[in-house]
Amino acid sequence: MSFPRLSVLDLAPVSDGTDFSQTFQRSVELAQAVESWGYHRFWMAEHHNMPDIASAATSVLLSHIGAHTHSIRLGSGGVMLPNHAPLVIAEQFGTLDALYPGRIDLGLGRAPGTDYPTMHALRRDPERMDPDFAELLEELTFFLGPVSQNQPVAAYPGNNTSIPIWLLGSSTYSARLAAQKGLPFAFAAHFAPDAMSRALAYYREEFVPSQHLAKPYVMIGANVIVADSQSHAEYLATTEKQKFLKMVRGRREKLPAPVHSMAPLWSAQEKMHVETQLRESIHGDKAHVKHAIESLVERTGADEIMVNAMVYDQSEKLRSYQLLSELME
């Protein structure tokens, strides 16, 4: 089995003790490094009202990353389409495509990327959690397409672009819609692995070839941390576990430093909850990670793995991505 193509998901994580300016500089540094190490894409995701995630203004941040890199593909993993007018997304990503031709991906999600009060602030109606996503997708595709003679509203820039559209999801809904539209599909196994097998099965069974894609293309999002030893990787991974523990408890804080033991921090029930949610996470030395990624690909048939390394220290995070890149060689 050949090793899969690897890409990077960066949420512009705000580590405890750092500010937004430092966070954005770290994202630039990471993008430059993974570009030099041969990673295929660098995606950022829209989240709101989260003190440990600074990628809320996704398209703005992607433009900043683009100005400091040369060849790596840049994209959203994802933009939450129901939070925005499709015309605005077409304009934003049309602008990115004009600035960085041939390098832009548009990954779309349908979740709000936040909580109920913030949904109100985003002008989303909490009583209507699922505006017709398929209809919004049609409208966005229309604005990214050619302009007809009598068309009253068009995206300038944005019209007549060939930006690849991806559908992202953690359930079967987006998988089936991606299949119906003949689009590539990315599954969020890094935080919600429960429906992965069913979603991928539906996607492949129901896939209809399109002008975008001749056959199914699957990307799996996974938390991966590589270190020089198994024990050190597991130590670094306690940051990830603490973050999810705080989410279970409804607490929002910056990304915490790693600890030598999680035992004093969680109850047995919390431990089970977090470890179930993170069961597709991969932490270890190069040999362990190589085997685990190959196993994930064998189980899912993934064409590509998008890696999120939830590591507190920047130098340790860069080291993790460098060690992982060596597995591609």
Characterize the largest beta sheet: strand count, sense, and whether it forms a barrel.
8 strands, parallel, barrel
What is the straight-line distance between the termini? Answer: 14 Å
Helix content: 40-55%
Shape: globular
The spatial strand order of the largest sheet comes to 1-2-3-4-5-6-7-9
Structural class: alpha/beta
What does the model show?
By secondary structure, the chain is of the alpha/beta class. The chain is built from 12 helices and 9 strands. The chain has helices at 20-36, 58-67, 86-99, 116-121, 133-144, 172-181, 196-206, 230-236, 238-248, 268-277, 286-300, 314-325; strands at residues 5-10, 41-44, 73-80, 104-109, 165-169, 185-187, 218-226, 282-284, 304-308. Strands 1-2-3-4-5-6-7-9 form an 8-stranded parallel β-barrel, surrounded by 8 helices. Helix 2 (58-67) packs parallel to helix 3, helix 3 crosses helix 5 (133-144) and helix 6 runs parallel beside helix 7 (196-206). The protein is globular. The mean pLDDT is 95.
Helix and strand topology:
Layout: E1 5-10, H1 20-36, E2 41-44, H2 58-67, E3 73-80, H3 86-99, E4 104-109, H4 116-121, H5 133-144, E5 165-169, H6 172-181, E6 185-187, H7 196-206, E7 218-226, H8 230-236, H9 238-248, H10 268-277, E8 282-284, H11 286-300, E9 304-308, H12 314-325
Parallel strand pairs: 1-2, 1-9, 2-3, 3-4, 4-5, 5-6, 6-7, 7-8, 7-9
Helix pairs in contact: 1-12, 2-3, 3-5, 6-7, 9-10
